[in-house]
Each structure stands twice: as C-alpha cells, then as structure tokens.
C-alpha cells in the first residue's frame, strides 16, 4: 500500500499510435492510483496519441521519430530522474496492463527494498495464455536469464515493472534500446550491476499483439539469448562496477 508520505510515483507510458487506447489507460490509472503522475512518451506516433494524452491531463514527451520501447523508456526515466520521482512504473499504452495491479509492485520496492519489481503472468494461477511459439521462446529466454541473474525468472518479457530511485538513476543512463532490451536485457543489466530484482504475481489483460509469435519472433528470441550471453562477458559500467553508487538508496 502506498502511503501519503511515500516517494512520488511516476507512471511511464511508452506509446506508439495509441490514440484509441490512451483514454482508457489514463482513466484506469486515475481510478486505481490517483496519487501517481503519468507521462506519455509519444514514440514518433503518426496518429493523435500526443494530443489526446495532453487533453486528458497527462504530461507528454514527444520523440521526433520512432525509437522503440527502449528509447521511449529511457526518455521516461530521464524525466523521472530530473523531476525528483522516487518510484517509477512502466505501463503499456495499449491497455494490456491493469492499474489495479500496480500497488503490489510498489509494495515490493517500498517495503522489501527491491530495485526492480516485475509483474509475472506466470506466477500463481494466472489466466494469461501465450501462443505455443511464444511460450517456447519465453521459456528459453527465462532459462538463460535465470542463470545470469542467479534467481528463478518466470516471465522475462513482462514489461509491467516498478523501479526504485536508484533504478531510475541507472535506467536514465543505461536503459537498453535493442529488441526486447526494454524487458529481458534491462532485467539482466539490473541484476548484474547489483540491483535487487524480484517478480510478483500479476494479472494482465490478454493482448492481441505478440512480440515472439512467428518465424521472425523465433529469430529474435535467439538473438536476445545471444545478447544476454554477450552481456555476461562485457565489462560492467564503470560507475556501477562495485554496485550502485553511494547515495542511491532505495526509498523507504
């Protein structure tokens, strides 16, 4: 539960041509986390995403071209850092994520000192269903990510996450921008650089979109597995080589 004296919360919504769904997303957030601020990062949309979000009261950051979710999220984290937010939540603009599931993520950060709390569709008795191809890809990625992160990862491609203050500072500078970098690689980088990463059971709406649901998706799954392995042999970022920088404590 988020109390009134808790750190300020920013909901970061990366959005590309989401003018139709953004009103529902913002209404959902206002109903369930009214104390949180929302910023919509318009990732080079060709529709009215930015103007619709602005009319509905959200802060809007407009990117000049489509950078992908990674680029949009790094922009959102920079905004969170520059404006002094102590907590940030990654929340999809297509309506897949549910605002009533945000508080358990925030509780992991606030109460348990977690730096990156991930909403897992596969913990507990969740009803979310993957296609066969996507399921196989997800299991392969989860196995490799678990070895690297040294804890059991169940849902490596979940983009529903909450970040601590020091995680915000890290992601504002180092958030990956490759395919699935916003989910898998971001989690691996966080774990390798001394951040505490954990999952919690989360319910999500079934999405019609699939990032790894066809032959091209299988190819990209293999690529992200190789990227994880490459991350393991690369040097850590100098300012985080010995763990998070001094003074970047978790909010409590």
Question: Please, could you describe this protein's structure?
Answer:
By secondary structure, this protein is of the alpha/beta class. It has a domain at 9-128 and 155-177 and 186-208: Spore Coat Polysaccharide Biosynthesis Protein SpsA, Chain A (Alpha-Beta Complex). Helices cover 40% and strands 14% of the residues. It contains eight helices and seven strands, in the order E-H-E-H-E-H-E-H-E-H-E-H-H-E-H. The chain has helices spanning 22-32, 49-55, 69-82, 102-112, 132-149, 165-174, 181-192, 215-233; strands at residues 9-15, 37-43, 59-63, 87-90, 116-120, 161-163, 197-201. A seven-stranded mixed β-sheet has the order 3-2-1-4-6-5-7, sandwiched between helices. Strand 2 (37-43), helix 2 (49-55) and strand 3 form a beta-alpha-beta unit. Helix 3 (69-82) packs across helix 6 (165-174), helix 5 (132-149) packs parallel to helix 7 and helix 5 (132-149) packs parallel to helix 8. The longest helix has 19 residues, at 215-233. It is globular, with a radius of gyration of 17 Å.
């Amino acid at each position: 539960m988020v109390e009134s004296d808790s750190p300020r919360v920013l909901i970061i919504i990366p959005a590309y041509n989401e003018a139709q769904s953004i009103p529902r997303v913002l209404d959902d957030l206002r109903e369930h986390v009214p104390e949180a601020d929302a910023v919509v990062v318009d990732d080079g949309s060709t529709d009215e995403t930015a103007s619709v979000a602005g009319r509905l009261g959200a802060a809007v950051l407009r990117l000049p071209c489509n950078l992908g979710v990674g680029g949009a999220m790094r922009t959102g984290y920079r905004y969170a850092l520059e404006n002094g937010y102590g907590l940030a939540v990654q929340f999809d603009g297509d309506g897949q994520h549910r605002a009533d599931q945000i508080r358990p993520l925030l509780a992991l950060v606030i109460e348990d000192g977690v730096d990156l709390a991930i909403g897992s569709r596969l913990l507990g008795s969740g009803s979310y269903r993957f296609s066969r191809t996507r399921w196989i890809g997800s299991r392969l990625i989860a196995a490799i990510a678990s070895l690297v992160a040294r804890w059991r990862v169940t849902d490596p491609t979940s983009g529903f996450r909450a970040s601590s203050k020091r995680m915000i500072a890290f992601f504002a500078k180092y958030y990956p921008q490759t395919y699935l970098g916003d989910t898998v690689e971001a989690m691996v980088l966080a774990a390798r650089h001394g951040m505490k990463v954990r999952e919690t059971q989360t319910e999500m709406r079934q999405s019609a979109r699939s990032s790894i649901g066809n032959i091209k998706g299988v190819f990209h799954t293999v690529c992200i597995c190789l990227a994880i392995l490459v991350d393991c042999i690369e040097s850590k970022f100098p300012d985080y080589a010995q763990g998070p920088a001094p003074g970047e404590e978790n909010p409590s």
